[in-house]
Amino acid sequence: MLKGSRCETAKCPMERQWRNSPPGVHSWRRGRHSEYGVRLREKQKVKRYYGLFDKQFMLTFRLAERFPGNTGEVFLQLLERRLDNVVHKLGMSPSRKAARMMVTLGHLLVNGRKVDVPSYLVKPGDKVTVKNSPRSQAYIKAQMELAGGASSQAWLSYDPANLIGMVVALPTRDDVQIPVEEQLIVELCSK
Length: 191
Known about the structure:
Blueprint: H1 35-50, H2 54-66, H3 71-80, H4 83-90, H5 96-104, E1 108-110, E2 113-114, E3 127-130, H6 134-147, E4 156-159, E5 164-167, H7 182-189
Antiparallel strand pairs: 1-2, 1-3, 3-5, 4-5
Helix pairs in contact: 1-7, 2-3, 3-7, 4-5
């Protein structure tokens, strides 16, 4: 309706063949990425998904290297255990940025203690609760309505009536839902 009568003809700018090619004069030159480019793309994907800067990313990777086992799986496990990610997975916030803000503003308690560091690593048995103030309770309930409910995670349990989340176990590789090849990240960051 809004396109006008011009789009019913062959001259329609929305239907031209060149719309399927990437932008730029030399679009025909675009080929495959280099090996470095592929690995960098995986790293950037994980950084953007979890909302990390490069320094935070590398500190977490160096920590994962010290643990026994597969470095890539341990790295993803450490990222999943971050407090801001756990709050988002519990359904207390609509996004990771909102969860990070919630933690930074001090609305949440871990095992009854105020934690305002989004990178805090939770352990199995930790309880994530809302601070006992009307302002915090109202803020969390408003954020939960925006979020629309908790995602089902096998390693987390959540009681929405009491606003209490519990870390039941450590997350596994199957719990990480992003399509990422962690081995490429390990190859890039191990240099």
